[in-house]
């Protein structure tokens, strides 16, 4: 009884195995029918079937499914190695993808089957032109001739090979090198639309946003690429380089806000050193550095920083203003007026600029007047008695009667000395002079303003009186109580 049961169980297993085997065979047959239908159609040699296959290839190309098109064409050729149209279509698709070596072989095979075909010969010629142009474009790129390289890519390679990914990526690199960042974003966007996970396109598009100082968007591109490939060296370099730049820039700004200006200077310089080519960001770093250096009284260094900012953006009003302030520190009065006047013209409603311009113009005017203290050889803190002593000494030294051989020079020097004493010996005039008021407001013209002695006699008399006269009397006997000369 046990043997019977065992026999029945075995029969059941065998039966189930048989059923399972039949099912598997039918499944495989069905798959073959589905997958090999294009091949069967091609082998049958029926025009309608081949046409349907080629039509499907055309539809795949239209929606840019080039891999599917090539797979179908490969299957057709494998099924019928004499199907010349499949070779021609495959050669054309491969040419558009700039898979030039494979494409050339397919054209040559087609021409073996269809010798002298003018369309194939023309496309083969285009292939060779495109391949040569792509090689030339890369050579020019390496040599730094970006404009010429871009011409080869646009006018030859992408004309004959419009789906060439290598050429498209090279074009984006060239646009970046030419600093046409908006076009680089647009072109790399087309690539990502076809393949959103293209790592090189993500990297290049991120760099374009980076150089436009759109750092948040740039970081998102770098992060997406790193999620796809965490070890991608160029993406890592771009991502961490940007993070470091932002950290350094933020540190500089924080130190300015805390009043730690010297630390801010070092941070600004450190940020600028990270990427000298990042002009859209560096222009603001240069300007901020110039501003800090002005506050520190480092006029010369501030001018250099503002020059850098203006080299990037010549219309930057704040840089003109800060450079004007820096030139005041270096006593370049004319330069300060020029910069501030230019800034005022660009922003006529800004009262702060107008006030700065007025200060610069006043400083220029002061710089152009006579320095009476210097003429008398005294300091601005000299007492009245010191001014008198200096004057007596110089008046005696340069009196024309004592300088017969160089009388003209002596007369000029004497006038200057007398004019200086005229201002500095009068407390009210001296105070007004020290405040920077115009000399003409004091009744003095240039070179002493109306103070023109005529030592030859005639005209009015002007008397300088000194208590006790000149030491030792007049010339040859000293001046008793004073001296006079005509003018």
TrEMBL record:
Its main location: endoplasmic reticulum. It is found in: Endoplasmic reticulum lumen. One of its GO terms (cellular component) is endoplasmic reticulum lumen. Pfam families: DnaJ, TPR_2. Keywords: Endoplasmic reticulum, Repeat, Signal, TPR repeat. The lineage of its organism: Eukaryota, Viridiplantae, Streptophyta, Embryophyta, Tracheophyta. InterPro entries: DnaJ_domain, DnaJ_domain_CS, J_dom_sf, TPR-like_helical_dom_sf, TPR_2, TPR_rpt. PROSITE patterns: DNAJ_1, DNAJ_2, PROKAR_LIPOPROTEIN, TPR. Transmembrane segments: none annotated. It comes from the Eukaryota. TPR repeats lie at residues 84-117, 199-232. This is J domain-containing protein. The keyword Signal applies. Residues 371-437 form the J domain.
